[in-house]
Sequence to fold (464 residues):
Amino acid sequence: MPFFELYNYWIFILLMMIGLYTIIASPNLVKKIIGLSVFQTAIFLFFISLSKVAEGTVPVTVPPAEVYSNPLPHALVLTAIVVSVSTMAVALAILMNIKQAYGTVEEDEVDQAEAH
Amino acid sequence: MTIIEFLLLDVILLCLLIVTSVTIFVLHNLLAATMVLSLYSLVMSLVWLNLDAADVALTEAAVGAGIATVLLIGALVVVGAEERKHPLIHWPALVLIALTTAALVYGTFDLPPFGAASAPAQAHVAPEYISQSVPKLHSGDYGSAKNAEDQPTSDNFHGHVPNLVTSVIVNYCAYDTLFEVAVIFAAGVSLVLLLGRRVAGNGGEP
Amino acid sequence: MRDQVILRVVSKITAPFILVFGFYVIAHGELGPGGGFQGGVVLASAFILYGLVFGLAELDAIVPRRVTDGLAGAGVLLYVVVGLVGIVSGYRFLDYTPLRVTGSESAESWGMTLVEYGVGITVASVMITVYREVSQAGAAEK
Fold:
């Protein structure tokens, strides 16, 4: 039945949408960045569940094992994790400068302060 | 691990993830939200370990649950740790989310079943890389020796290393990793440029 | 936090073990899960622990800014130099064949090890830099 074959993907969609909702619906900029982190990590879950082979093991070749999970999405996700923390660091640095310039990190108050 | 044990662990951890991510949205204290984000990263790394992604789980535990948490708490010192109270339901966002979810779920019916060995992702380049690495190691010169005297004395791997993910990152796709390291370096440089080298107590002047 | 005896003693005791574990994860990245990124983050976390417990001035005393700035660039430079060795010797960029230093089959092994160390050094330095800048901005706020 489709649930047992696709449940991983449905839960990934739910997590991704919760992260996206956090980004859109929170006026606080730091909460948006936290939501972005939730969103990105859910996407990595999608890649890793694409790479799983049912009878396979960790893609480290230890002699008794014969079938391995696909190592290519793992390489992709490894890159993406480190890049995501780098972008989060730069985003937080920009936020710290916004706080110093405008005194607030709520999105609408920053818009008002910038309009003047 | 049998299929039932795997499914049970997977479903329990994924439900924990859903609860955690909803909690992150609902919490108004940003310090608490950071702690729950760290928990989310750690549980996600356990999910990945269950899905046979050991390298990725190690990276997420170190980077997501470690560095990101320290970074966020450091930023909260400057930015302030309380969020202004806002209504939890944002109708335009909910409509957008519902439409996107419907479209994505409709799209998942075309995906191969979870874990199928015949999926397109497993079919083209990956078996080639795996078959290049596996027979050279199975031919008996690494890892199958029982005593210390039978272990190979030379340290070379005949060009293929046991960890397939590292061999993909550093050997087959070394060009990508070069620019990834350049991105990390650029992030370090931009941090120094953005935050400056302020002298403490000077109110922000370098 | 330096007046908390437990934090002070435990961080001084465990910091060398964390450093050794970080180098272990980088060096054995080819034999099991691990590699440059993971090991670099673990290395940085030893210094971040020290900085959290003893303060930024102590962290600046043991790892000056020049060192982290220099090492961050040195890691990327090591990676690029390993790639250029391939071009200089007549092969392609990032071809590891001319690195046959110890034995005729050790080219890939040498290439991957050098590149992993480059990645680990850069990641560790950048993580320490990131922590230092964020923490300094926080200290300047008070």
Remarks:
- Residues 1-85 of chain B form one domain.
